[in-house]
Each structure stands twice: as C-alpha cells, then as structure tokens.
C-alpha cells in the first residue's frame, strides 16, 4: 500500500511540474497577446492560450484525484501535495481570469472607442458564459471534494484538514 502511494507521490511531482510548464506557456502567450492589444493590434495566440488552459485544467483535475487518493491513504505527503496542486489551480484561475478579462471581453483599443450600446455583445456574452461555467465547475469540484473529505480521528489530522479548508475559504474570499 505504501509503495503504491509513493508511486502516486512521484507521479504527482512529475505531472505537477508538467502542469506548471503548461501554465507558464499559457501565461507567456497571454502576455504576448496583451502587449499586442496594448499596441492596438489583434491578439494572435488566443486559441493556443485557451487550449493550454484547458489542458492544464484537465491535468489539475487528475492531480486532485491523485491527491485525494493520498489523503484517503493517510500518506504523510498528502497535505503537501494538496497544497502544491491547489497553488497550480489558483494560478490557472488567475491566468484564465486575465485571459477572459483582457482578450475575450473585447478589450482591444478599437472596441473601446465603440459606444457600449453599439458594441457586439455575442462574443462578450459567450466569453462571460464560459468564464462563469469555469467558475461554477471550480465551485462544484471544491464542494464535492469537501463533502467527500474525511476529517480524521485524531487532533493533528483534523487540524490539517481544517487548515486546508481555511485555505480554500481564504482564496474564495480573495476572489
């Protein structure tokens, strides 16, 4: 059992590194497109950014499943791996938020000069809907994870889970 859990830890370490690289690539492309927007040019890498963010999102979901396996198996590194994956998720949400607000919301200079009532709303509405769906999925995933989480039978385990819960609560408040 411990050997299987240790393989999961190794897998988590490797795949979280790959996920971090995926997020770095998406962020680099996003910053490049933001610079283009600021120069009055259309973004060039929006599809790539969205694809990278979707890949990272899928990776993070799988990583959270592995983390839950570690926590259920009471592996000593379970909490550490949870925090690592949680930080990746926070970064994904931050990059996706910037992407939705800057690129998908019609932020280019050309769109700003059009009066609000005359701006085409369909693209903005689709981007907003996608963003809200992502946020709702995040909330539902966290509710599911909190509902399925075991609180433990001893004080240190309960305190550890309480700390995780407070961290999640804090990130929600910050948002």
UniProtKB/TrEMBL annotation:
Gene Ontology, cellular component aspect: focal adhesion; hemidesmosome; intermediate filament; perinuclear region of cytoplasm; sarcolemma
Secretion signal span: none
GO molecular function, one term: ankyrin binding
Transmembrane segments: none
Domain of life: Eukaryota
GO terms, biological process: hemidesmosome assembly; intermediate filament cytoskeleton organization; wound healing
Alphabetized InterPro entries for the sequence: PCN-like_spectrin-like_rpt, Plakin
Protein name from the UniProt record: Plectin
Organism: Spheniscus mendiculus (Galapagos penguin)
